Every structure is written in structure tokens, then in C-alpha cells.
Amino acid sequence: AGIGGLTAAIALSQQGHSVHLFERTSELAEVGAAVSLWPNALAALGHLGLEKRVRIQGQWEEDGALRKPSGVSFWTFNNSNLIILRPALQQVLLEAAEGLPLTLGAKCTGVTSPWARPTVRLDGGATYEFDLVVGADGVRSTIRAAVAPHEGPPSYSGSTAWRAVVSAPGLVSTAWLTIGRGLHFLAAPLPEGFVYWSPLVKIPLPEVEAIHDHLGFMRRCFGTWHDPIPELLDRTADGACFATPVHFRPAPTWFNRGRVVVIGDAAHPMTPDLGQGACQAIEDAVVLADCLSTQGRSIQEALEDFTARRLRRVRRIVREARFLGKLNTSMSPLADLVRSSMFKLAPSGYSDRHLQEINGREAFDAQMAKPR
Q1: Whole-number pLDDT of residue 64
Q2: What pLDDT is recorded for position 296?
């Protein structure tokens, strides 16, 4: 019952399918602070009739900038995305999913018979049989094990993200990302004077686990960076920022095995450098339901269609996010030069066109226009 799972349940239900949601936690509470929804994700939500409801819950951004730690901007661009609190997005989706069967405290321990009618096993021994199982259970997906039983765990990217939301009216009017010294710091305004901030630090995982004072660590990393970063940190309450080690997998080559399919982070966990993690989960959900909407063909044929529509696009985004992550967290002076010059030297309009291919509404619409 996270973003990807709820969106998939809504989309499949709208196509007339009987859907049952299983959530491993005992209460619904979306983890995380805020999420960026680019036009591609909003177009997908619009296909479900949810775009307007989501938009009024977030803060629309038109302009963005990349900065150096001194505060000097080295690239400005058309940002055009919605910043929304994860709990607010989840609430919109929950309201749209009202009436669908939802079982809380249902931890999946495995899936059997993926090629026939797959059976979901839950902690405690209960079993459920379905025509199709959709795994939207995150980066450490249990459902994924039914699709790739011999696969290893996801890899640590070498970087950890911190996140917080703080009341700071007027302090951040537009979104910006500051990059340097193997670190970067994102800040974006939210409704009612709140600000979302999220740094990324290149740090070994054991060192992350040894940090007890996360806000103090943030001050040591960013306390001398440009305004208003020090003030944002000062306005953040102790314990209000939390760390999330960033894990990823190589670009996928599949989405399903038999009648078990994975979407979102279960299928293609990626680094956050393009802001597309949640967006791609939403795209997965809506495109999957569209593939399953055609009468007279098998589930397997529908899943083959899903892979054909999604795989190339997802592979590109996973790879580009990983490339940007490596570049942005590099401490090499050469990397700093590349970061500063790659946008300045690009032909006029090239960077914007490139971003449109990833996060534009047309990028989503093109998948829905493909022959079924």
C-alpha cells in the first residue's frame, strides 16, 4: 500500500479487475518526507482521474538551479514539477482506493507456482491464490525472489540520503540543488511555509550506522555552505532528519516470471539523481493496467506487452541516474569541471529537450499510444 502498490490497485480496479491489497505494516503510514512528481507521473495520475487532487496537495515548481557550495548558480532550468509530502500523496491514493480489499499486517514470505495460478504465502501461514501477483514491495522485495530466485541483494550506491521537513516561511522560494566536495544538498518549498531539504553524502555504510546525532553530522557537512542551508539546519528539530542509505540494481532486463510481475523499486531501484523513483513506479502501475485491459488475450501476452512498453525507458533512466549520481558525488576536481561545463557547453535547448524525454508528459503518453 505504498505509492506504486496503491496506484496499481486503483488502475487495475478501474479496468474491472478484482484486486486485493496486502500491506506488511499494521497501520498505513508512508515512510519518507517528500517526493517530486514530474509531468510524466502527473500525466499517468491524470489517466486515472487523480491529477487535480494530487496537484492541490503539493507545491508546483517552475524554475530550478544547480549551485556551487558558495551559492553561485552554474545552471538554471525549467523545473516544472510538483513537490508533495509522501503522506499527502498516499492519502489521495487511499481515498481513490476506498472500498478495495486491504489486509494490514500481511507480511509476504514467498510466492509459489508463478507459471500457473501463483499462491502468496503470508507470515503466519495464510495463503491466497490469484491469477496475477504484482509485487510493489520495495527495494528489498520478497516478491522479486519469485521472479529471480538466484539473484543477490541490491547494492549500496556508496551514498546516503538525509531528509527533513521544516517550517521556514519565506526561506526557500524556489527549488535548488547545490553540488560540491562529493556532497549535494536539495531544498524545495512546500505549501504553508514548509521546506523540504535532502542532502546526499558519499559515505561508507558502516559509518552511517555509527552516526547517533544526524543533525550534528549534517552541520559538520554543510554548516559552511551558502545561505539558507545553515538556517535550515538550525530550524530543524533534533531527531527530525533521518538517513536512508541509497541502494540500487543494474538496469533490469525483465519484469516478470510467469504470472508474477514486479514494479517500482521492486523492479528497478534507482539512485535519486533524476528524481524519478516514485514517478517510474506510478508509470509502471498505469501502463501495466492498460496492458491488461485488452480482452481476449492471455495474462502472459499482456505482460509481454508491458515489458515491451516499459523496459527500454526504464533501463535508460536507471543508467542515467546512476551516471549522475557518480558524477555528483565525485570529489575529483575534474568531475567538478565536468559538472560546471557540461550544461554551459551543451547546444541551446539540448538539456531541456533531454529532460523532456525523461520527465515530459509526452514521454508517458507515448507508452499508452503503443499498439496493444
Answers
A1: 83
A2: 84
With 70 as the cut, is the pLDDT of residue 266 above it? yes
CB 201 within 8 A of CB 160: yes
- Planar angle of CA 342, 346, 352, nearest 5 degrees: 100
**Degrees to nearest 5, angle at CA 272 with 10 and 176:** 110
Give whole-number Cα distances, 39 to 79, 92, 138, 159, 278, in Å. 10, 18, 23, 27, 12
C-alpha distances in angstroms, 198 versus 146, 266, 310?
A: 34, 23, 29
Query: Distance between CA atoms of 283 and 312, rounded to whole angstroms?
Result: 13
- What is the rounded distance in angstroms from the CA atom of residue 31 to the CA atom of residue 89? 12
How many Å is the maximal CA-CA distance in the chain? 63
Specify the range with the lowest mean pLDDT, choosing from 74-88, 158-172, 211-225, 330-344.
330-344
The closest alpha carbon to 281, from 306, 256, 264, belongs to 264
- Helix and strand numbers (H, E) in the chain are 13, 16
Residue 216 predicted with pLDDT over 70: yes
Enumerate the β-bridge partners of residue 188.
Answer: 196
**Taking all residues of the chain, what is their mean pLDDT, rounded to a whole number?**
91
How many residues are listed for the chain in this entry? 372
Using pLDDT thresholds of 50, 70 and 90, give the confidence band for residue 177. very high
CA dist 33 and 189 (Å) reads 13
Rounded Cα–Cα distance for residues 66 and 181 (Å): 14
Map residue 61 onto helix, strand or coil: strand
Band of pLDDT at residue 129, cut at 50, 70 and 90: very high
Antiparallel, parallel or unpaired: β 133-135 and 260-262: parallel
Alpha carbons within 13 A on the beta-carbon side of 14: 20
Q: Considering the entire predicted model, what is its pTM? A: 0.94
Between CA 14 and CA 183 the distance in angstroms is 43
For cell 521556514, the residue is 168
DSSP annotation of 151: -
What is the rounded CA–CA span in Å between residue 76 and residue 371?
Answer: 38
The cell numbers describing 311, all together, are 523496459
Instruction: Report residue 244's pLDDT band, with 50, 70 and 90 as the boundaries.
Output: very high
Positive/negative CA dihedral, 267, 273, 279, 280: negative
Q: What is the pLDDT of residue 63?
A: 80
Average pLDDT, stretch 282-307? 94
Q: How far apart are CA 362 and CA 44, in angstroms?
A: 10
